[in-house]
Amino acid sequence: MTSGLLSYEEISDLISQRIKELALPDEPENLYEPMRYMLGLGGKRLRPLLAVMSHNLFDDNIANAIPPALAIELFHNFTLVHDDIMDNAPLRRGHETVYKKWSTNVAILSGDALLVKAYELLSQSDLAVQPRLLQAFNQTALQVCEGQQLDMDFESRSLTCKGVSEKEYLHMIKLKTAVLFGLSLQFGAFTAGQDEAVAHQLYEAGIHLGLAFQLQDDLLDVYAGDGFGKQTGGDIINAKKTCLLVKTLEQATLEDKRKLATILRTKSRQPQRKIEAVMAIYEKYGVEAYTADRIKAHLADFRQAITGLQTGREQNLLNLIDQLAGR
Question: Going by C-beta distance under 8 Å and a sequence separation of 6 or more, which residues neighbour residue 143?
Fold first, then answer.
C-alpha cells in the first residue's frame, strides 16, 4: 500500500484500481453486470477521494482509509441508480442509466446489492473505529433518503403560491447531497484516529463543499452546454426545483410566476425553446449570478475550515477543490 503524503491524482488512481478489483460474482448476470456497469462509468470518485485525502492530512499510511472510502462510493452509486429511476433520467455520465439499459426491476435490485456491498466493505474496516464509522454511515444514509423524499415532495409544490423557499431547498440539498460530503471527510478523521472536534470540523467543511457542489450542478445543468454527460437543461424540461428556479419564484411578480409555471408545465416538442424561455426569466431576476455568489461563499467557508486544521498538509486538498470549482 502506498504511504506518505499523496497527491490527489495518486489517491484517485488507487481508488479506481481498488474499485476495479472489487470481487463481484458472474451470476446472476442481470444482478452483477449492472453493478459493474455503474461502477465502470467512472466519474470523479470525489467522495472516496475526500475520505482518503482527509485521512492523509494526519496519517501517512492510508490502508485503513480505503475500505470505508470504497463503501461511500458504492453507497453513492446505489443512490444514483435509484435516483435515475425516480427522475426518469435517460443518461448518467454520458451513458444510458441502468434502468434504461436493463429495466426498472433490475436497477432496483442491483442498486440494493450495491448498498449491501457497501456494508460489507465497512465490515472490513479497523475494528477500533468500526462503531464510529457505522453510526455515522447509518445516520447519513437515512438523511440522504430524507433528502430524496423532500426533493420528490417539492415537485408537487405550487409554482405560483406557497412554493419551496430557498431555506427549504438548501435544507433538502444538505440532506440529499451535502451530508455525504461531510461523511467522507469525517470518515478520514475517524480512520486517522482523530477526536470528535476534528471530525466535526471536517464534517462541517464537507457540508459547505457539498452545498457548493450541488449549487454548481444546478448552474451547469442550464449554463454549461453539452459535454458534461447529462441532458442539457434537463432540470427545466422536468420542471425540477433548483436554486435557480426557487430564487426566481421568491422574487418574481405574480405575472412572471404564472408565465414561468405555464412554460414549465407545457410539454414542448421543441425543448430548446422551452429552455431558452425559462433562461430569459432567470436572467431578468439575476439568479445565475446569485447562485454563483452562493457557491463562492460556501467554498470560502470550506477553505477556512480546512486551513484551520493547521496540519501543514492542507494544500493538496485545497488544490483539488480549486480544480473542481472550474468543472
Answer: 175, 179
